[in-house]
Specification:
Blueprint lengths: L2 H4 L3 E7 L11 E7 L2 E8 L2 E4 L29 H12 L3 H4 L1 H8 L2 H28 L6 H9 L1 H32 L40 H21 L1 H31 L17 H15 L15 H30 L2 H6 L3 H10 L7 H30 L10 E2 L6 H14 L5 H29 L12 H15 L6 H12 L1 H9 L6 H17 L2 E2 L8
Antiparallel strand pairs: 1-2, 2-3, 3-4, 5-6
Length: 569
């Protein structure tokens, strides 16, 4: 291209470039405004080459790779210990401390509930092993998005990232941060249900200091005001957004610390339960199958509650561009991390079921506190469990923040979302604009704050796309047999996981179709958005103008760089 034509370009956006007969299929695309309108230019070997037409910004042949170095590349700082911490820290967060009541309510007995928790662990590790193969063969920060894109092309991938960005990830962080706020405020406010056990009916024969199990006095007033809970939740989201912007090393340190603290919370719960059982208090678990009332649809909703507690097993794969050896770190990080989680969850449920009756489990909203509080209710010990669980949920929100930012960043970098969301901070090498965008959405989801419905919505949407990935793994095995796979899962596992995902998606329709229909409608709404926002021919010019302005201001205010090319716009 001549110098005269080059000087007339006005930057609009960048995206993945698929090549044409006029330019090689490597590099990226600059959408630029010339004297004759908005057109696209391919970048190859550092030179701008005119392609002469608008190209689709997303498609089966899109470049799903990441920048290997230079500006816009993410820092590769995560180790195996960090990976284990990310797995454990992301999974053990709010779920084991808020959803046991949902599982028991849908099954009717502690026996069936216990087997559901084991089944959820099996499904989680099966899904994680499938993702290990996908994550090591397609090491992209978009994870699920990148896998669906590779297997099925642009539209299904966009439907996932659309749903993830606007429903799954912000709803998840809203739920976890609300749990954080509930537990953090609990030391200063009393139980929310007067039917829950208090110190006078505890039979565990030890106290920490004067005024133990025989003292009914509780100076706390409850429950905590709704405005306070939501304010604390919003503060949690904001702080962790800043932590993740500052750098992946700081994020990993927070995750490692929270992993230790949450394990202390689990250990305290488990020890208390084992001592209680050891003293002969087995009334709550003697007839563990009594009250069983379960159907195929109700069982599916019970699995939703348990699988919410296990959710986060896919978080590690969003760090694909920040790990040096994914073939080694991914499989070992998943195996060790999942083993710790499943073992801890089994023992935690035994403790819950021994310390509380089935009815008490169903009625509580902060089960870990209500199980241990009657035993440790003293002037100082009453603060221990709530604060430990608060730190646990803080760490889970941290992991969810990491995931949400990387997903949005990857989609924007590949052309599915506006370019300004792919900005990477010049100093900290983190996806700053995507992190801020997701934090705003999460705070928005805090306004209604209905945890029960959000869990159902989250689980339905998640397993629609988990199932899509399992099918994609099978498709890629046959369509791309020579694809480099540092880790291969036994082929039977993705087939079984596909069947399980199908059941989890279909079964809830027969019990409570409204949430399922709502999510289905939200997913379908992504189809017209796909053609509007990812195909330049169908994109109105005013959207390009808005994208131009947002990109310029984002790069300036966030001191960031676009990952597409080392060009100074």
């Amino acid at each position: 291209m001549g110098d005269e034509a080059t000087t007339s370009l006005t930057f609009v956006s960048t995206s993945a470039y698929h090549g044409s007969e006029n330019a090689p299929a490597q590099g990226k695309v600059i959408t630029a405004r010339t004297g004759s309108g908005t057109e696209e230019f391919g970048i190859a070997s550092g030179e701008v080459e005119y392609t002469g037409e608008r190209k689709p910004l997303l498609g089966k042949g899109a470049d799903t790779g990441a920048p290997s170095d230079g500006k816009g590349a993410l820092a590769r700082d995560l180790t195996l210990i960090n990976a284990i911490g990310l797995v454990v820290g992301s999974i053990i967060g709010s779920g084991i401390f808020i959803t046991p009541n949902q599982v028991l309510e849908q099954t009717g007995s502690v026996g069936v509930s216990f087997f559901v928790w084991i089944g959820c662990g099996v499904l989680a590790i099966g899904g994680a092993l499938c993702f290990c193969e996908l994550g090591t063969s397609i090491p992209n920060a978009g994870a699920t998005y990148a896998y669906i894109l590779r297997a099925f092309g642009g539209l299904p991938a966009f439907l996932y990232i659309w749903t993830a960005a606007f429903v799954i990830r912000p709803a998840s962080r809203a739920i976890i941060s609300l749990a954080f706020a509930e537990y953090l405020s609990r030391p200063f406010y009393g139980p929310q249900n007067n039917n829950l056990p208090n110190s006078s009916n505890s039979t565990l024969n030890f106290t920490l200091m004067e005024g133990g199990p025989d003292d009914d006095f509780d100076p706390r007033e409850g429950p905590a005001p709704v405005w306070l809970v939501k304010l604390l939740a919003a503060l949690c989201v904001t702080i962790l957004c800043l932590v993740n912007i500052y750098g992946v090393k700081l994020m990993a340190k927070v995750q490692d610390i929270s992993m230790v603290v949450k394990l202390l919370a689990i250990v305290l719960l488990i020890i208390t339960g084992l001592i209680y059982i050891g003293q002969g208090n087995t009334e709550n678990i003697k007839n563990f199958m009594n009250g069983t009332d379960v159907s195929a649809a109700r069982l599916g909703k019970a699995f939703y509650g348990g699988l919410w507690a296990y959710d986060g097993w896919d978080t590690l794969f969003f760090a694909a561009e920040e790990v040096n050896n994914v073939g080694k770190i991914f499989p070992w990080g998943i195996k060790i991390g999942m083993a710790i989680v499943i073992f801890a969850y089994i023992l935690a449920n035994i403790a819950y079921m021994s310390l509380l009756s089935a009815q008490q489990i169903i009625e509580t909203t902060v089960i870990a506190v209500d199980a241990v509080d009657p035993v440790l209710k003293t002037a100082g010990a009453v603060y221990i469990m709530p604060l430990l669980v608060a730190v646990s949920t803080f760490g889970a929100t941290n992991g969810a923040t990491f995931t949400a930012g990387r997903q949005t960043f990857s989609a924007a970098r590949e052309g599915s979302f506006p370019t300004f969301l792919s900005a990477v901070h010049n100093k900290y090498k983190t996806p700053i604009s995507a992190l801020i965008f997701q934090a705003v959405l999460a705070i928005f989801y805090l306004i209604p704050g209905d945890i029960g419905n959000l869990v159902d919505i989250f689980s339905f949407a998640s397993w629609v796309f988990y199932g899509t990935c399992f099918v994609g793994l099978i498709v890629l095995r046959f369509r791309e047999p020579h694809l480099h796979r540092p880790y291969k899962v036994f082929i039977v596992i993705p087939f079984l996981m596909t069947l399980a995902a199908g059941y989890l998606v279909i079964a809830p329709f027969f019990d409570d179709p409204y949430n399922s229909l709502y999510v289905s409608a939200a997913i379908a709404a992504g189809a017209p958005a796909y053609f509007i926002f990812t195909y330049p021919r169908t994109s109105p010019d005013f959207l390009h103008s808005i994208s131009d302005v947002l990109t310029r201001w984002t790069l300036m205010l966030c001191r960031s760089t676009l990952p597409a090319a080392d060009l100074d716009f």
